[in-house]
TrEMBL record:
InterPro entries in UniProt: Cellulose_deg_GH3, Fn3-like, GH, Glyco_hydro_3_C, Glyco_hydro_3_C_sf, Glyco_hydro_3_N, Glyco_hydro_3_N_sf, Ig-like_fold
Domain of life: Bacteria
SMART domains in the cross-refs: Fn3_like
Hydrolase is among the record's keywords: yes
Native source species: Arthrobacter vasquezii
Molecular functions per Gene Ontology: hydrolase activity
This protein's name: Glycoside hydrolase family 3 N-terminal domain-containing protein
Amino acid sequence: MSTTTSTTTTPAWQDVTASASDRVEALLTELTLEEKIAQLFGVWVGASSEGGDVAPHQNDMDDVVDLDALLPNGLGQLTRPFGSAPVDPALGALSLLRSQRRIAASNRFGIPAVAHEECLAGFATWGATAYPVPLAWGASFNPGLIERMSHRIGSDMRSVGIHQGLAPVLDVVRDARWGRVEETIGEDPYLIGTIGTAYVRGLESAGIVATLKHFVGYSASKAGRNLAPVSVGPRELADVLLVPFEMVMREGKPRSVMHSYTDVDGVPSAADESLLTGVLRDTWGFDGTVVADYFGIAFLKLLHGVAGSWGEAAALALKAGVDVELPTVKTFGAPLAEAVRSGDLPEAVIDRALRRVLRQKVELGLLDRDWDATPEALRDADVDNTEGIRGIIDLDNPGNRAVAREIAEQSIVLVSNDGTLPLAAPRRIAVVGPTTDDPFAVLGCYSFPAHVGVQHPGIPLGIELPTLLDSIRIEFPEADIEHVPGTTIDGGETAGIPAAVDAATRADVVIVALGDRAGLFGRGTSGEGCDVESLRLPGAQQNLLDAVLATSTPAVVTLLAGRPYALGSAVTGASAIVQAFFAGEEGTAALAGILSGRVNPSGRLPVSIPASEGTQPSTYLAAPLARSNGVSNIDPTAVFAFGHGIGYTTFDWSAGEHGPGTVGVDGTATLGLRLRNTGDRAGTEIVQIYVHDPVASVVRPVQRLVGFQRVDLLPGESVELSIHVPADVTGFTGRNGERIVEPGEIVFGLGASSTDIRITHSVQLSGEARVVGFDRAFHPSFNEIARSAS
């Protein structure tokens, strides 16, 4: 008996008492080939600014989409209904509501679409909070705070009808010239995995499907060029690039993964069955959906040259393990149907992907009989009164801004300071540099104003973006402030530098504000497709910096940037250096607060600051021969290393009670630490644990982060910690390709950065080499034994 014709019996796929798998199978058997395929692609749409149906979004890669022709077969996803053009959030929600009703009414089974959006540094829509970028999350070393942020992002998205978010980025920085460094969490796999797990937990707890990207190797492209080929060995792949995905997959439980654009050793990720099925599903047990990076399946034909037709590209991706084509239908439509009908692709491969997609729709409630397209934010609104609902949804509320401010304050890194900071009520302040009066200087390229808003210059930004100059004026209301830009971010002009020098000469202190402008594909100095040849400051900024530092006025260098830059004369000539990585809408107020001392900085570098502009690619995860040595005249040593950062108080470190000097390869080492705040104000120290493996069966990094903990102490307060480190964290991929914990000496270092190790404890791991896998321990535990005041 058909379950589609009864008006009194609930169709099996809509029966909420049945198992998800039973519901999926019941629906799958009813679908035609075209209806199956329709669930495996998205259509790029834009919400109507008047609350009407979404309209297809046109892009250089798009074919014309006829929704009337597509919708009778159903639709898998809606691509960026909020994030394609500025639209009032309430009208956008109404537009999505009406579109979902249309989609459900158009197909035989009443199936709505999954709606997805970008959410890299906040919900990427008009009027939503612009949080700090992921590189700033890494600098905070505070996973709990990032989880709070992502829960708020997810709640905002879910409230207006969004189901899936395309974040977080788990790429490991291997070459800081790569334009998308700002989108990463840093250069260390453990830091990325820990912070990335927190982000996923927050997003998923709000009901949003988190999407890990870009799987895998994107950040290791040759010469730091976007989409360039990747040549890494299996050990670097397993021990560096895959580790964050592995950690987040196990501990964050994401429900989606996006493949990378790149090819690794000649195999494009979108067509790599060993990666998308072998590693991801067979080894790690992932049962969610794999979605295409935008146009990534078409790129198998257009860019990689491994497919001769759209149908071949579709078949390659599906066989490898890609389930959904995004952002719009290109290869998964008629070409895919033809590939099945011609016998080139078994229909069972379609069914495999479809089961994953439908199961996710079951989980989201989209196949429930009582499904309602009305999002939470419009439940009490009169949706027939289009103009009456304008402005009723606030996506930049005080709670959001408070979290954005907290992240900004905790992520800004005080890199150096000769005592000039905090500023003690200076009478005359010169503020020079190109990021002083630029509201976009705090935004990454995937923020809505920078990503989409710039294409609509007549539309207001939708959020308040005070410039650094604005915030300095508020922070120092009694000071006489003179502002001279000196040059632009990347124009190379030098005519304004003498005026900036004159202003600096007249001042008690000069703030030199440098950095980036986020953009896309060469339209910025940082962002997707904005790669650089060297890490010299963009444009004539170094010329400006050198000229100002040549004056006798104390100079505080601030950077609002998307990547680390070589700072040349500032390293020895600046009175202080403050690094902010695109710190979001509250970023300039946070930076001004650090300059005044209202905020005690606690950020740490998630990426090293190079001593020279031309030593890339380099990373702190360097083996002995990748460090300074006598066989090369090039010294790649960073001037400020991964994990570095100081504040306005000082801490005394001393060893506590360590555990035994010998533990088994399946055991746990115990480290003891006493920490005391020896300054006159409250502060935060970030205790970092590094592993050094003096002799191993394969070459290992000299130092590798395996744990960290933020420790807040009042003036004079002390704490004693007992830290338990499982031997599993010392593991690496051995010569036979298996991850092992190897017997022998291991030196654990407790330090304030990767190059500032304060306490070491040598442990002998005993026993035979032990194979560890996906279920291994990832983290040490920090236990507070005692805390006392001065």
